[in-house]
Amino acid sequence: MYISKKAMIKNKSNLIVTYRLNQADIIYIDTFITATGTVDVGGFMPWPGAHTIATNCTTEGTIDASGVTGTDNFIGGFFGNLGWNCDLGQMGHEITNYHADVDIISGGAPAGGFVGSATNSNDQSMYATFINCSASGDVTNVSGVAGGFAGEAERGDYDDCSANGTVVGAVAGGFIGHIKDVTPKYDGRYPAGIRPYLVDEIFIDNCTGSSGLIFIGKIDEGTKVTIDGVMQ
Questions:
Q1: Is residue 9 part of a domain?
Q2: Would residue 231 count as lying in a domain?
Q3: Domain that holds residue 23
Q4: What distance in Å separates the CA atoms of residue 113 and residue 21, rounded to the nearest whole number?
Q5: Burial bucket for residue 124 (CB in 10 Å: 0-12, 13-18, 19+)
Q6: Contact in structure between 46 and 17 (CB atoms under 8 Å)
């Protein structure tokens, strides 16, 4: 399946996010986006939400988000803000065999070659697993956070993933721009003890980042980060 998407996004009222990528097997997406204002932007989807299972997809193109300056908005080559999990008893988002080749310019909003934010957006209830995913677009965010794969992250599993585009940012990492320390909390719908994963930790195994930069631009004190079996 081939999808071509062109959009000019000005504010949240004009941003269509009514669909959820709960399960998908889409082949190729061609995207050209210009955005300004208070928005999340993704080459395929700004915010999938819920429990997303997605496999086998490629997106290519450009995102000009030089007009998106807010640090509470996120820009990503595939997903902007990965969002929340509706069923915390499962493994959260499961993203497999995805590739983003999207050149990104951000005006200050955290930006990543694959995902802008893999952090919590709904009472700290997000977890994601990325398997064999890659980002090859350039990421430029001279006044903010930039990562070759993820702009910001704070929990989840990254297995056999890579980034190889050029990354420029005030805080920049070849793989992740900024790993944040976020204290989990719950909104009463899902008890804390039912999940089969460790909500406070991020695991990165057999992943590579864009050359010429440190692997992770910034790691907050108190975070639990394990890379190739070694706690950082």
A1: yes
A2: no
A3: 2-185+209-219
A4: 19
A5: middle
A6: yes
